[in-house]
Design brief:
- It is a single chain.
- By secondary structure, the chain is an alpha/beta fold.
- The protein folds into 2 domains: 134 residues, Aspartate Aminotransferase, domain 1, CATH 3.90.1150.10; 241 residues, 3-Layer(aba) Sandwich (Aspartate Aminotransferase, domain 2).
- The protein is 40% helix and 14% strand.
- Helix 6 links the parallel strand 3 and strand 4.
- The structure holds pyridoxal-5'-phosphate (PLP).
Length: 383
């Protein structure tokens, strides 16, 4: 019945954990689920109020424009200017998305012919590889290893793979690792992409969720990046808006035109009222995100200390909602043991690719008092 493209999807590794979680809940265990990357904090009220008002505007009840309202694209351009000091032409260097996942999933359809390669990191958000495969392409893995600062080793990409590669996906600050990329690395990357005629698709939804005052970069801050790169951005994590489905892709105008062409044949844009509220979100005073960041910073400190105390190997994340801890053995077994002993659910690293094996991802998207409770329970993982 099913097409090969879905029959060939990798097995759902979390099925066993999901089942165990349900069984534990049925037995009355007070499960603390640290496996999801979905902010528990509500969308700030001024954004919700803006949506309510915009929903009354009947011009928003008709089909939206494919590329998004110019006013929304202007707001994205202004946000990039104030956040990263990058100039974007809202007319052709900004495209509205129905969440960044939508744009990422459709992008390979614009550039990949059957047999072409997309370079994808491992471990990684799984959409890069599946979207490449859906387009008939071959994902070629770039391992992200601790000894390389969890950055891909560009020199290790075989010459024939680089020749066949049309696009490269990357994501810093990184899910699931929490690592960030330096300006130096981004510079080398832009040179590499130019030399090998590869389009960089940089996925940057966590840019504002950073810690210890170390702001994260946009790849477009690098001179010449616009010649070779686009960057996906999202309101999901910055403003606790995962349910709203709104994001953008910015940068190289020709690349955006390709993605736009695919999208205009698949979807009909983002609800106008959500775009109006998105404008209000992007224009929020800086304090709005500062407050959100403060809550996460506190949770990161609590969980980081607890994981260190049980002798897991990890670095304090520089950004994102995740702690990435080396548990030394099978991540699937560790996840099962963790649930059994503590009632905590976390994500086995293997779910993000084979180079994620041996690691667990702990998310901080639960109320601070639940994170504190999780920290207390983690003591039971001491052997
Ligand atoms: C690395 C990464 N990219 C993209 C997304 C998708 O975000 P959204 O579609 O909500 O913008 C996520 C969500 O968890 C993510 O972790």
């Amino acid at each position: 019945m099913y097409a090969d493209r879905i029959k060939n999807l990798p097995p759902y590794l979390f099925a066993g954990i999901d089942k165990a979680k349900q069984e534990a809940r049925a037995k009355g265990v007070d499960v603390i689920d640290l496996s999801v990357g979905d902010p528990d904090l509500p969308t700030p009220d001024h954004i919700v109020q803006a949506l309510k008002q915009a929903a009354n505007d009947s011009s928003n009840h008709q089909y939206p424009s494919y590329e998004g309202k110019l006013a929304f694209r202007n707001a994205v351009a202004d946000w990039y200017k104030k956040t990263f000091d990058i100039d974007l032409d809202p007319k052709n260097e900004v495209l509205t998305l129905i969440g960044s996942k939508e744009g990422i999933a459709h992008a390979p359809l614009a550039f990949i012919n059957p047999g072409d390669v997309a370079l994808v990191p491992d471990p990684a958000y799984p959409v890069y590889a599946t979207a490449t495969a859906f387009a008939g392409g071959e994902p070629a893995i770039m391992p992200l290893l601790r000894e390389n600062g969890f950055l891909p080793d560009l020199d290790a990409i075989p010459a024939d793979v680089a020749r066949r590669a049309k696009i490269m996906f990357l994501n810093y600050p990184n899910n699931p690792i929490g690592a960030t990329a330096s300006e130096k690395f981004f510079g080398e990357l832009v040179d590499y992409a130019r030399d090998h005629n590869i389009i960089i698709m940089h996925d940057n939804p966590y840019s504002e969720i950073y810690y210890d005052g170390n702001r994260s970069l946009s790849i477009l801050e690098i001179d010449g990046a616009k010649e070779v790169a686009v960057e996906f951005h999202s309101l999901s994590k910055t403003y606790n808006m995962t349910g709203w489905r709104i994001g953008s892709v910015v940068g190289n105008a020709d690349v955006l035109a390709g993605i736009g062409k695919v999208k205009s044949n698949i979807d009909s844009g983002t609800f106008g009222a959500v775009q109006d509220a998105g404008i209000v979100a992007l224009s929020s005073p800086k304090e709005v995100v500062d407050e959100i960041r403060k809550v996460y910073q506190q949770r990161i400190e609590i969980l980081y200390k607890a994981l260190k105390d049980i002798d897991l190997v990890l670095e304090k994340p520089r950004a994102t909602l995740y702690l990435w801890a080396w548990v030394k053995g099978s991540s699937i077994d560790y996840a099962a043991k963790l649930l059994e002993r503590t009632g905590i659910v976390a994500t086995p690293g293997l779910g993000f690719g084979k180079y994620g094996e041996g690691y667990m991802r702990f998310s901080i998207t639960r109320e601070t008092k639940r994170v504190e409770e999780a920290a207390r329970r983690l003591e039971k993982m001491k052997d």
